Amino acid sequence: MKKSAVSGELDQFDRKIVDLLSEDGRMSITELSERVGLSKTPCQLRLKRLMEEGYILGFRAVLDAQKFGLDHVAFAEVKLSDTREAALGEFNRAVRKIREVEECHMIAGSFDYLLKVRTTDIRRYRQVLGEKISSLPHVSNTSTYVVMQAVKEFGRS
């Protein structure tokens, strides 16, 4: 299943670069090239191409939310009263502005969206739900699931 890097598809070296950088985005090009099995220049060229072609969107710090006092995680199911494209667009634009919403996914099922919401505690979550999420365009109903323990989460092993 080896694919050609020339055709814009990922080969084994590209996949190794992506895998290594997804674990440690601060890895030096020297270490990356050694671990991939390429010299520095070809490795840099591949990295540049992966970024230009949009396989790698960027690099950022993964923060420990608990150290910032954001220990409370809840998932909110959201049902909309209108699911036409214009209404979905309004909801999408508005939900992106709520800082406490870490993730928002449109769902195929008995509700329309699933939101991951991180706050300091249940009281703050209740405020965010009541004042921000429930007042988003076309929201008709919400249901909440409070996280008791994160077993696997982005940025944590």
From TrEMBL:
SUPFAM superfamilies xref list: Dimeric alpha+beta barrel (SSF54909), Winged helix' DNA-binding domain (SSF46785)
Record bears the keyword DNA-binding: yes
Residue span, HTH asnC-type domain: 10-71
CDD domains: HTH_ARSR (cd00090)
Family annotation (InterPro entries): ArsR-like_HTH (IPR011991), AsnC-type_HTH_dom (IPR000485), Dimeric_a/b-barrel (IPR011008), Tscrpt_reg_AsnC-like (IPR019888), Tscrpt_reg_AsnC/Lrp_C (IPR019887), Tscrpt_reg_HTH_AsnC-type_CS (IPR019885), WH-like_DNA-bd_sf (IPR036388), WH_DNA-bd_sf (IPR036390)
Name of one Pfam family that matches: AsnC_trans_reg
TM helices/strands, residue ranges: none
Keywords: Activator, DNA-binding, Transcription, Transcription regulation
Matching Gene3D superfamilies: 3.30.70.920, Winged helix-like DNA-binding domain superfamily/Winged helix DNA-binding domain
Keyword Ribonucleoprotein (UniProt): no
Protein name in the entry: Lrp/AsnC family leucine-responsive transcriptional regulator
